[in-house]
Design a protein that fits this description.
The chain has six helices and no strands. With 146 residues, it is mainly alpha-helical. The chain has a domain of 92 residues. It is flat and about 70 Å long. The termini are far apart.
Length: 146
């Protein structure tokens, strides 16, 4: 005997499906397409992390310093999925994603110089501009003969 779902279950499934579709539309609208806005968003976390790391170095209490360093690490790791999406949208952000990803293996203080340069590039207007039009003509259409 096959049971049909009750109306409450069907309604909940419909609401969940609509929420997922709506979330997809919202997230796709947020994407810039070239990854620059995502790289800038990732760099917001990176810059917070660097600021916290600097603050940790000025703490006299080792326990407080360790707590602030942990907050810095959490901020840096929060940048990783955003940087990965930026790299997916545009390969120029691959270095940013890779450097942030290295934070699981390398001390953040070692990564700071590279992160600062990469985030400076993300925040500069040069990378926010449209790419110049290509002078390479499009490929010729393929013949349809068998």
């Amino acid at each position: 005997m096959i049971r049909r779902p009750n109306r409450g279950t069907v309604r909940r499934l419909a609401v969940v499906a609509m929420a997922i579709i709506g979330l997809g539309v919202v997230l796709s609208a947020c994407s810039s397409g070239d990854g620059t806005a995502l790289a800038q968003q990732a760099c917001t976390h990176v810059n917070r992390s660097i600021k916290l790391l600097d603050e940790a170095q000025h703490q006299s209490d080792p326990v407080a310093s360790a707590a602030v360093r942990q907050k810095a690490y959490v901020q840096l790791r929060a940048a990783l999925p955003i940087a990965a999406e930026a790299a997916y949208d545009n390969g120029q952000w691959q270095a940013l994603m890779t450097t942030v990803a290295e934070s699981s293996r390398v001390a953040e203080s070692t990564l700071v110089p590279a992160l600062q340069v990469q985030c400076q590039e993300a925040d500069s207007s040069v990378f926010g501009q449209q790419a110049p039009p290509s002078s390479i003509p499009p490929p010729a259409p393929a013949s349809s003969s068998p």
